[in-house]
Amino acid sequence: MDLSVVVPTLNGRDRLAACLDALAADATDAEVIVVNGPSADGTTGMVRDRDDVDVLVEISDRTVNVARNAGIEVATGDAVALVDYDNRIEPGWRDAVADGLDAAPVVSGPVTPIPPIEAAERAETETVGPAETDSERDPTEPERNRIAGRDVTYFESGNVAFRRDALRDLDGFDEYLRVGGARDAAHRLARMDREVAWRPAMAARKELPTPTAADGGRSAHEWGWKYRGLAYRLLKNYGVRPTVLLRTGSHAVGDAIGAAKDVVRGESTPSRWAATGRDVLVGLTGGCSDGFVARRRDRSPARNPNGISTRADRAVAKYDRRTEAERGERGRSGDESGAIEADGDPE
Q1: Gyration radius of the chain's alpha carbons
Q2: Of 31, 83, 125, 142, which has fewest CB within 10 angstroms of its CB?
Q3: How open is the CA angle 94-130-127, to the nearest 5 degrees?
Q4: Residue 243, exposed/middle/buried by CB under 10 A (0-12, 13-18, 19+)?
Q5: Mean pLDDT over residues 257-264, rounded?
């Protein structure tokens, strides 16, 4: 099995370096594609100085689903994995990917957070490897739900691998969504009766940022977009059904109660609670409207009117070592820089 690994990143240079080190140690035969955009912390230079990254794609969007699709577009493997820049795969990950994809078109595994203090304490002596023994790790099962008579198995968005045909049928990720793209893909996989396998050995550790670290491109929680995305993906995939309305309403009521408790404890204010409610209502309204439109636009099993096939301008620039290798330049005696060579025109 030829494996491509796509690593979307944004302002996470140091954690990205640790992620790439782990991939180089356990997935030595994989084609590694980093999709960067638009970072301002020296990520581009760091990646271009490495010789274990096959392709660097620069994009202008800050949306992770655009980054995922940009990487999938240039991947050549018959299997494609997605690994978050702040995840470190553990030994045995590559074999677990192969084992899982032998059994199902999609495979995922657990991601265990590394507390910032622990990460700092281990930084000086850490080698790429597991932080705990197999007996200590909790190989939890994936999250599952039954919606509108359909069994949905969710996967870890930053630790998942697909057979190429599964990604083709999905048409990648829905770029309308700022958040929830992986959950949307799980709904669509269920619609197509595509199984998601779970392999505890396909494990990764997530390095959480320290309080002073760069934000990695991940903004604070946006209530409006949470509910816009929730309404959009449920209406797009299922239409108007009692279970869809019930799930959306239960989320809203639960969050409203939680926000009210914050006001009572003095951790928030009534005006902030009211503003949050307004954002939720605006998000729900916009998501419902756009979900109906999306459902009409794409009636196929993919249910993805904003997928890979809908645009060709994601990449601002692409630096491709594979092109260099095809020309036989990797072994040229005068080439000492190790830089990735640009392919010219933006895609």
Answers
A1: 21
A2: 125
A3: 100
A4: middle
A5: 82
Residue type, 37: G
Residue with tokens 């800050």: 62
Residues 6+ apart with CB under 8 A from 22: 88, 89, 90, 128
3-state secondary structure string across the chain: CCEEEEEEECCCHHHHHHHHHHHHHHCCCCEEEEEECCCCCCHHHHHHCCCCCCEEEEECCCCHHHHHHHHHHHCCCCEEEEECCCEEECCCHHHHHHHHHHHCCEEECCEEEECHHHHHHHCCCCCCCCCCCCCCCCCCCCCEEEECCEEEECCCCCEEEEEHHHHHHHCCCCCCCCCCHHHHHHHHHHHCCCCEEECCCCCEEEECCCCCCCCCCCCCCCHHHHHHHHHHHHHHHHCCCHHHHHHHHHHHHHHHHHHHHHHHCCCCCHHHHHHHHHHHHHHHHHHHHHHHHHHHHCCCCCCCCCCHHHCCCCEEEEEEHHHHHHCCCCCCCCCCCCCCCECCCCC
Residue 333 pLDDT greater than 70, yes or no? no
For the ranges 255-264, 299-308, 337-346, which has the lowest average pLDDT?
337-346
Residue written as token pair 């669509």: 188
Identity of the amino acid at 45: G
Distance CA 44, CA 24 (A): 18
Distances (CA, A) of 9 to 64, 68, 91: 8, 10, 22
What tokens does 2 get? Answer: 């030829």
**How does residue 328 score in pLDDT terms, banded at 50, 70 and 90?**
low
Half-sphere exposure (Cβ direction) of 74: Cα atoms closer than 13 Å? 32
Q: Which of 78, 74, 67 is nearest to 29 (CA)?
A: 78
